Amino acid sequence: ARTLRIGLIPGDGIGKEVIPAGRRILEALPASLKLKFEFVDLQAGFQTFEETGVALPDKTVEILKKECDGALFGAVSSPSKAVKGYSSPIVALRKKLDLYANVRPVKSVMTAANPIDMVIVRENTEDLYVKEERTYDAADGSGKVAEAIKRISERASSRIATMAGEIALRRQKIRDSGAASIHSSPLVTITHKSNVLSQTDGLFRTTAREALAAARFSSVGVEEQIVDSMVYKLFRQPETYDVIVAPNLYGDILSDGAAALVGSLGLVPSANVGEGFAIGEPCHGSAPDIMGKDIANPIATLRSVAVMLEFLNEELAAAKIYAAVDANLEEGRLLSPDLGGTAKTSEIVEDILRRL
Ligand code: NAD
Ligand code: MN
């Protein structure tokens, strides 16, 4: 049996309602998988900041680094006005643990009229998000000018494209084992704007192309899309996409756009992935408008548990969770209010656990 130690960081708002559901599904996995879990409760978020003066305590980072195999992160609230000393703990965590990829599977219910089944793989460490900005007065006295560095490196582009290739192969392996899918062969779409940004996006494009030309990806189809036409195609023909790889900013925008296609933020999971470590994280925020009512959709979190498990090499366990969630959605009897139903969070969790 393998024992995995998982850090639990509920954060704020509905994070405190959905992360316990994530823990429960890990505990409910069938014994035949020979997987055991230990849990460590960890603090981060706005409430933590108000109580202790720091949003991400050193202790949380240290325990994650030294003791944990993976983690689940709920959501954190950010105050609408900037608060001195406060910055997002998840952004800091990605940096401190070098979680270089943000992986977001976006999948509709298989019976949907417009089936969607894609994974967006977003580079998580560079591009415009290096936050090197400056503001100065225009030389001609016409006012201020602000500018930002867009940094693209071969190393980061190569490893993110390689991860996209690995994900495409893994998805094909699952299809080969008989899982129903709208795709028949693996495809990676490289997204960029190299027609305008020939150096930065040009480097991303050529490096990703090279990485995906490796022999082990010989069965993976590779195509390119300029990001603006990508948005058009994403909305018109989302079913054509299998795995999408993008630099940080385009990936951020595409992944929120893709989430809109499947009907609710409450369905869409993600994982922040580095070498040998993964943090599962639902894409939604702390949803203060629905907190404390037992109506938050737990599915984004349950699927995030599965994505985390995939990156901890527990693909069988992940598949069980995906299948149980899909079965709940296909039946459509117990749905949360964001999907037009009346079921409580707790009822949905029970239903999905029963299907494991
Ligand atoms: P949000 O995702 O919290 O909510 C947007 C809308 O979607 C709300 O109407 C909410 O009720 C609904 N929703 C979200 N998750 C749901 C779920 N699981 N089930 C059912 N309905 C759900 O985004 P927001 O309202 O823009 O932000 C609220 C707070 O969350 C802010 O403080 C924001 O800074 C923070 N936030 C955090 C993260 C994060 O931690 N990664 C991401 C986005 C927003
Ligand atoms: Mn975003």
Provide a quick synopsis of the model.
The protein is globular, with a radius of gyration of 20 Å.
What number is the mean pLDDT? 95
How many distinct domains?
A: 2
Strand order of the largest sheet: 2-1-3-12-11-4-5-10-8-9
Output the CATH homologous superfamily of the largest domain: Isopropylmalate Dehydrogenase
Helix-strand pattern:
EHEHHEHEEEEHEHEHEHEEHHH
Low-confidence stretches: none
**Number of DSSP-assigned strands:** 12
In words, what does this structure look like?
- There is one protein chain.
- This protein has 356 residues and is an alpha/beta fold.
- It folds into two domains: 1-107 and 264-356, Isopropylmalate Dehydrogenase (3-Layer(aba) Sandwich), CATH 3.40.718; 126-261, Isopropylmalate Dehydrogenase (3-Layer(aba) Sandwich).
- It has eleven helices and twelve strands.
- It has helices spanning 15-27, 46-52, 58-67, 89-96, 154-176, 200-212, 227-236, 248-261, 299-311, 315-331, 345-355; strands at 2-11, 35-41, 70-75, 101-107, 117-123, 133-137, 144-148, 187-192, 221-226, 243-246, 271-274, 277-280.
- Strands 2-1-3-12-11-4-5-10-8-9 form a ten-stranded mixed sheet, with helices on both faces. A two-stranded antiparallel ribbon has the order 6-7.
- Strand 6 and strand 7 form a beta hairpin.
- The longest helix has 23 residues, at 154-176.
- The mean pLDDT is 95.
- The structure holds nicotinamide-adenine-dinucleotide and manganese (II) ion.
- Manganese (II) ion binds next to helix 8.
- It catalyses: (2R,3S)-homoisocitrate + NAD(+) = 2-oxoadipate + CO2 + NADH.
- Its EC number is 1.1.1.87.
- InterPro entries: IsoCit/isopropylmalate_DH_CS, IsoPropMal-DH-like_dom.
- Pathway: Amino-acid biosynthesis; L-lysine biosynthesis via AAA pathway; L-alpha-aminoadipate from 2-oxoglutarate: step 4/5.
